[in-house]
Specification:
With 396 residues, the protein is α/β, with parallel strands linked by helices. Helices cover 47% and strands 8% of the residues. The strands form 2 sheets. The protein has a 4-stranded mixed β-sheet, sandwiched between helices. Strands 3-2-7 form a 3-stranded mixed β-sheet. Helix 12 packs antiparallel against helix 14 and helix 15 runs antiparallel to helix 16. The protein is globular and about 60 Å long.
Length: 396
């Protein structure tokens, strides 16, 4: 069990490291008490996310240091699932007794471990080497392949949450995975985008630290200067609530342009929309369509780029290509959207945002079936065994 969780941080003060290391130690001691109380001998518990990568974020408010990153836990159950199992109560228990630390818990059967793909699978594979609680031996398995498309998936996850939900929104049936703090979310979103532009230095795990080490690469500097990257890390590693000096919309437009190999300059927005449109024409998959239409929101209300109409038309045409058999809860919103889009192509941007919030649950349901190995999505680098670094795989 680690005692120093900041091995890959850059700017975190020593005092903050010491205080938060002790905070995490208390958190883990409470976890062990919970396991002992319930005599669980068929569950291993691992930590993932930024803590597993040894690069957590710390908040500094009212002169106090505290862990800002979530404690993301994964319970690996030897037999069966979590239904009726005491482990399902761990998340609520930890959030009640240590509300200053946000704890999340995900459960999986040990036999399903080798089937998990994408960045989630790679994080899980890496986490197995550092258990918090180990009750039994887990079989090893090869690390899941991570390519450009998997990294783009993580970026779209953050971009969709940021664009579709207002600050301080409350969870609903369709509001999956968003952050209440706009400023924190902007940092996370920017870093996930920048991770799409680089490769892991270790070959094992792609850390935020790798972004910093590559801050002078031509792909990263097309989005942020090296000084801006340093400032991004300073704000993330010790967050004090201060706002960014950069326009997040401009940064995201640059990010998407780089991801689709569009050069800067006049007409960049139209070129990005054309690139997204060309890829949309190839697919009827909700995974592809959602991931390619979310970025179009960045140009729908940008008069400087003059591509609002093209973005709206491409968005509508892309969703018309959808195979509706992939919908489970969004059939009615989808039919309403297509019907309204047929009548006019001057729908307000809010109409497109509302539609994506309604269809988002279907996107995540379909994505989950891929991430957990229930079916293959050959467009993904992991699906057809392409290595990290293939930058032409998005939407292919």
């Amino acid at each position: 069990m680690s005692t120093d969780w900041f091995s890959y941080c850059i700017t975190t003060p020593e005092q903050a490291r010491s205080i938060v290391n002790s905070q995490i130690l208390r958190h883990q001691e409470n976890i062990h008490r919970f396991f002992n109380r319930h005599a669980m001998h068929d569950v291993n518990l691992y930590i993932t996310g930024s803590l597993s990568r040894k690069e957590p974020s710390v908040s500094y408010q009212n002169g106090q240091y505290s862990l800002l990153s979530d404690v993301d836990l994964i319970a690996v159950i030897k037999d069966g699932d979590s239904a009726g199992h005491p482990i399902r109560y761990l998340e609520d228990h930890m959030n009640q007794i240590m509300p200053e630390v946000s704890t999340s818990l995900f459960s999986i059967r040990s036999t399903d471990l080798p089937t998990v793909t994408s960045l989630l699978g790679r994080d899980l594979w890496y986490a197995l080497r550092q258990p918090i609680v180990q009750a039994y031996a887990v079989d090893t398995f090869p690390p899941p392949c991570v390519g450009q498309r998997e990294k783009y998936e993580a970026f779209i996850h953050q971009l969709g949450s940021y664009l579709l939900y207002p600050e301080n929104a409350r969870p609903t049936g369709s509001a999956l995975h968003f952050r209440s703090s706009r400023a924190v979310h902007e940092i996370k979103l920017t870093l996930e985008g920048l991770r799409c532009l680089i490769e892991a230095s270790s070959g094992e795990l792609l850390r935020y630290r790798d972004v910093y080490e590559n801050r002078e690469s031509h792909l990263v500097t097309a989005v942020l200067s090296p000084t801006e990257v340093y400032e991004l890390f300073r704000r993330r590693e010790l967050f004090d609530g201060s706002p960014s000096n950069s326009s997040i919309k401009t940064v995201m437009q640059r990010m998407v342009a780089v991801l689709f190999n569009i050069a800067p300059g006049t007409g960049q927005g139209a070129a990005v929309v054309n690139a997204l449109t060309e890829r949309l024409q190839r697919s009827s998959s909700i995974i592809d369509i959602y991931q390619l239409t979310v970025p179009m929101l960045l140009w729908m209300s940008d008069p400087l780029e003059g591509s609002q109409r093209e973005a709206r038309e491409a968005f509508i045409d892309g969703w018309r290509n959808l195979d509706p058999s992939q919908l489970f809860v969004g059939s009615a919103p989808y039919e309403d959207f297509i019907r309204a889009s047929t009548k006019t192509n001057t729908l307000p941007e809010s109409h497109f945002r509302h539609f994506l919030t309604e269809i988002r649950r279907d996107y995540y349901w379909n994505l989950r079936t891929f991430l957990f190995g229930y079916r293959r999505q050959l467009a993904y680098a992991g699906g057809d065994n392409h290595p990290v670094g293939h930058r032409d795989r998005i939407g292919d």
